[in-house]
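W.,

You were right to be curious about this one. When I first looked at the sequence I had no strong expectations either way, so I just let the prediction run and decided to look at it fresh. Below is the sequence, 462 residues in total, followed by the output.
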Amino acid sequence: MKKNSLIQSGIRVAVLGLGVSGRAAVQYLQACGAEVVVSDNRSQEQLLEKEGAFLDNCGVVWEAGGHSLAFLGKADIVFVSPGVPLNLSLLVQLQQQGVRIMGELALAAPALCETVVAITGTNGKTTVTTLVGELLREAGKNVFVGGNIGTPIFEYLLKGPEAEALVLEVSSFQLDTAGGFRPDIALLLNITPDHIDRHGSLADYVRAKMKIFGKQRQADTAIVNGDDPLCRTLANEIGSRVMFFGHGSDCQARIAGNRVILRWQEEEIYDLVGTSLANTTGVLNSAAAIAAARSAGCSPERIRAGLAAFQPLHHRMEAVAEVDGVIYYDDSKATNTGAVLSALAQIGGKVVLIAGGKDKGDDYTLLRKSVKDKARKVILIGEAADLLEKALFGTAPLGRAQSMEEAVQLARAVAEPGDAVLLSPACASFDMFKSYAHRGEVFVAAVERLRAAEAVARAEMR
């Protein structure tokens, strides 16, 4: 197990919320010798039903049904999971009493001696994190990939084995409580409005994202999207060595069609033709990942091999099927307007767009131009349907559906051969589905039923 100078034997740490990261935190902190207590919002019955065995096994003192100052005020540190808003009055009171409020990045930071590659941005984090991890593995490195994607970092610190490099997806929520976390290589992929319901404003969202560079030293590397005007402006605030990726002539990882030209000791060319990454978004993601992999010591030959072998992740502009000459795309991971704009830009013809879900405070008017240019019709679902209808009124014909099945049927009715039906919601999924993945799976199942019905109809015509 990785030792941690921050967690001394006998220190009292309260874990706020017993989710995936909360459970991992309890186990790691106890292994470090901390006295751990747990506070959870769920009722006692709900908590015991879901977590009773875990609590018994760990032997921690706990409270349920909400968080109390009396219970948490005895702690030296309160660990907050990424989903816990930091503006809770209780957390403010605890800080005033001298209790330290910390997230997993801050608590883990003293135990990290490996090369750390951290990736943030509004869109593309998971794909680029996965791609960087694959490129490093292709180069023969022992790599841990986790953070906001997959395995919590506490599980790695607790169980090992020790890796040469950590590739971590980090969200704005995690960066809000990052403390002394310092990545050797930090990537900022893009910034568009997202999670405004949590952060309160775009300025505060940006401030959280920029914490990825806050503790970097001059010799560390910052890889920044040179095509994003806001990211370019923010680069002036970074104290480490900045590398741009994008289409500009000053970009060290410059995009030219489906090639990435890297200015290193000498010019290196990475041709993506014939790979799954040979599209607008794929090339941009590749440019960022190539810059990170080279900075981490990977050779050009192994990077090229890794790019050739990479397969896209599910629910990200994933072609599901072609039915009656119409291609259906699952882009359920597109939970903000920036992701939807990227998806629309990748489709050449007309689009029937399925959008909507749980609102996160995004500005849906940002979609107006692209929807007007590309959409044959927009079919709205979920709680945010009224907001989207108001924002998009006059851009394209608008319709409503009460379920994903109905949305797919309505899309089929208006789509013409050569069109695309695109599920790209611009919203969270939790009003109608368990997750964005569940939403995508329901969409795929509805499309598969269409394809099966088409096959039956064709067979009957023979």
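Here's what jumped out at me. The mean pLDDT is 93. And, maybe more interesting for your project: The chain is about 40% helix and 20% strand.

Coffee later to discuss?

I.
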